[in-house]
């Protein structure tokens, strides 16, 4: 097999159509060329922000047959897999943890990362060659380690077989179990929880006039600017620790990526089309992903309505099977029917000492997380 490997410091140097032929069969919008390229062209992803693009492409003659979105990282922010303690151990041993090589869709804590392989190719064999190239590159460039975060479950099995070490996390997923309407969804809860949810929704009466759900392709262009303002306001409430995206990124979503976007808008006045709050979701096939939300003013229980109940109601009406509402708030989500699902990240350390420490501890770490998953789901099922 005669293969050529190329490393790219910008996604724009890889032909969009060739990349899309690899990415689109997987149906994971966060590896779409347009999404990843917008992160770069907007300035959110760059060496200045600590995310240096280092994408790998694989060619047979002049045909792109595989690719991997990868980044040189100089910190661990925006990953939502918290490895700062690993970095501290490395530093205590006198070894630099940064830079490291990272595979993920930046700032996106949802499961589905993988190498992109042409469907006519042998995926396992190509992944083996790509991993060897990554190992060589990391050692030549003095990168401490490589990490693939929140990976596609089927692809994870391949990579585990190839020697990558799995680290267990969880995602909180709501599943549509054939509900006909929102009341069907409520029927799975006990009486107390049904009453609590209905009470939360009633408390919004009089605070907002109505809720509107609009696809990105049909939304007013101004809503993309509003979405940035609301997102920035939410980040500001939490000391800007997750303020990774800028206005240019949200404005750019109104182009080719609008086809993936669903807005949930709260409108305060029947005579006004301007939202007082927005949440932004990504829809691909039977999957819905909650991404960003915010409002300028406080409304009781608005977060639950605009980020959970309205999307669930819309998901039921539009035959969405799974809804990943994003990271965090496990207790809050489990009480609304979201179950913790196992998610793996994959890791390899090139310093022998760090590799030994990791291998000696990762099974115990995973056992603790498995117990955490069981506790979350026990709480959710106590409905």
Automatic annotation (TrEMBL):
UniProt xrefs under PANTHER family: ACYL-COA
Classification via InterPro entries: Acyl_CoA_acyltransferase, FemAB-like
Domain of life: Bacteria
Protein name: GNAT family N-acetyltransferase
Native species: Nitrosomonas cryotolerans ATCC 49181
């Amino acid at each position: 097999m005669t293969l050529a490997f190329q490393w790219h410091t910008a996604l724009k140097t890889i032909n969009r159509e060739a990349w899309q032929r690899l990415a689109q069969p997987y149906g994971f919008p966060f590896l779409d060329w347009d999404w990843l390229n917008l992160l770069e062209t907007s300035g959110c992803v760059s060496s200045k922000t600590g995310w240096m693009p280092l994408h790998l492409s694989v060619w047979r003659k002049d045909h792109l047959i595989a690719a991997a979105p990868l980044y040189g990282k100089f910190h661990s922010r925006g990953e939502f897999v918290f490895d700062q303690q690993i970095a501290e151990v490395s530093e205590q041993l006198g070894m630099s943890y940064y830079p490291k090589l990272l595979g993920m869709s930046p700032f996106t804590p949802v499961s589905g990362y993988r190498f992109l392989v042409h469907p006519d190719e042998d995926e396992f064999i190509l992944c083996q060659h790509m991993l060897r190239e990554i190992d060589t590159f990391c050692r030549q460039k003095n990168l401490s380690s490589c990490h693939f975060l929140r990976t596609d479950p089927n692809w994870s099995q391949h990579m585990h077989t190839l020697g990558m070490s799995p680290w267990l996390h969880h995602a909180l997923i709501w599943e549509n179990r054939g509900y006909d309407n929102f009341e069907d969804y409520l029927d799975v809860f006990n009486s107390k929880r049904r009453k609590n949810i209905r009470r939360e929704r009633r408390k919004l009466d009089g605070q907002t006039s109505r809720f509107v759900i609009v696809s990105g392709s049909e939304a007013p262009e101004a809503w993309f600017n509003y979405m940035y303002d609301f997102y920035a306001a939410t980040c500001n409430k939490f000391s800007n620790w997750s303020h990774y995206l800028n206005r240019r990124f949200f404005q750019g979503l109104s182009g080719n990526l609008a086809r993936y976007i669903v807005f949930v808008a709260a409108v305060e006045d029947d005579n006004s089309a301007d939202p007082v709050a927005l949440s932004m979701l990504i829809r691909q096939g039977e999957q819905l992903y909650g991404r960003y939300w915010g409002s300028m003013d406080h409304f009781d229980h608005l977060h639950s309505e605009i980020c959970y109940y309205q999307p669930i109601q819309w998901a039921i009406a539009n035959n969405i099977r799974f809804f990943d509402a994003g990271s965090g708030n496990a207790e809050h989500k489990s009480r609304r029917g979201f179950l913790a699902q196992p998610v793996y990240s994959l890791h390899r350390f090139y310093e022998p000492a760090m590799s030994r420490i990791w291998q000696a501890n990762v099974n115990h770490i995973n056992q603790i997380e498995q117990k955490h998953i069981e506790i979350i789901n026990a709480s959710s099922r106590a409905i």
